[in-house]
Amino acid sequence: MTRHMLRTMLAVSVVCAAAATSACAGSSGPPPVTATPALRAVTLDGAVYGHPIPVGDTVIAATENDSVYAVAGDTVRWRTHLAEPLPRAQLPCGDIDPVGITGSPGYDAAAHRVYVVAESAGAHKTLYGLDAESGAVVLHVPIDPPFGDPSAYLQRPALLVRDGRVYAAFGGNYGDCGNYTGAVAAVDISTGDVTWYRASTSGRGGIWAPGPPAETAGLLYFSVGNGDAEPGSAYDDTDSVLALTPELRRADFFAPATWAQDDAADKDLGTMNPALVAGRLVIAGKSGDGYVLDPARLGGISSAAPAFTGCRAFGAAAVDGEIAYLPCANGTAAVAVTATGAATVRWRTTAPADGPPLVAAGRVWATDWHAGTLYALDPATGNVLAQYATGALPHFAAPVAAGGVLVLGTMTGLRAFPLP
């Protein structure tokens, strides 16, 4: 394939799968997609792990080859190669090869700038700001965490741009090896000054869920993974949801009373980004237990019972009104949340759609990134309305809506699917 758009045709298999709450024949949701749309592919110079972002009629995508692209339709408007990526062989563990730009880009609409964190030789991490019109580099700030070993860190979550700062969160590589501590960096765009928050007092406690933090009432909410505290030790700030001020001071936190057992069994909350739904925060981690939290009072170490169970969530949820569509390992689940914090599981899809979902065009879209399939689900029932072959996908691949199509990052670049 070339860098430009390769057009081919994809036959759409429309699958009718019974969900937990209704049979397909009785579904009152949107009609199935029966057309045979064109599948468009753009080959880039590496895998696109972070989800692409729409900027006007252009899609910005960053690759593991440390390149950033602006793509409009079937045209690459610009490409900026920032550095040489780090070969996997130079890391103590991990499953990305090479490691370049992994976290999703951030966008500053006021300045029309795109921001990415690129990894390069020596396992150094650098925040770059690029002019979104031309791709010219306008900012270059080293942001290696000031504790631990550089090679043990991975910048996985989506970047967030707010009020003159870029926020970048860090965890470890796949395998959780080496000496690192979960961290958040806040970079002042005007001065280049970097402020750090250290997420664990014992080590590890990675912040790596691939979506952005939740935001409300001027605070940022992150989830934190398991730490290194020994059984019987004091609480080490891990297995938690934490609220940070814009200056990265901790304002509040939540952790289940079982945090020590969760950490020892690798069943922490750090795999899902907190989601703001009906004024509440929803979080579900590796244990399968889901919690609904009051963002104004998270509760500290809490013995509160889970609000729902059976959802080991990995990635960011999609929110539509009072419904959160969660990226459960056993398939997307729809959870309704009230203003009082009550939660009801409306449905669990029978499809293996476990990637971070998107709500667009009256459907819930989610990938099976293991098999290379994109599913369109009925938001009322979870029934499968259509499925599309995507080619090889990176972990936690998530579609975005841009310019009237769905765009998906793949192991070779981008693929676009027309919305119904």
UniProtKB/TrEMBL annotation:
It holds the Pfam family PQQ_2. PANTHER family: CELL SURFACE PROTEIN, OUTER MEMBRANE PROTEIN ASSEMBLY FACTOR BAMB. It comes from Nocardia yunnanensis. Residues 50-205, 318-410 form the Pyrrolo-quinoline quinone repeat domain. SMART domains: PQQ. This is Pyrrolo-quinoline quinone repeat domain-containing protein. InterPro entries: PQQ_b-propeller_rpt, PQQ_rpt_dom, Quinoprotein_ADH-like_sf, WD40/YVTN_repeat-like_dom_sf. Keywords: Signal. Residues 1-25 form the signal peptide.
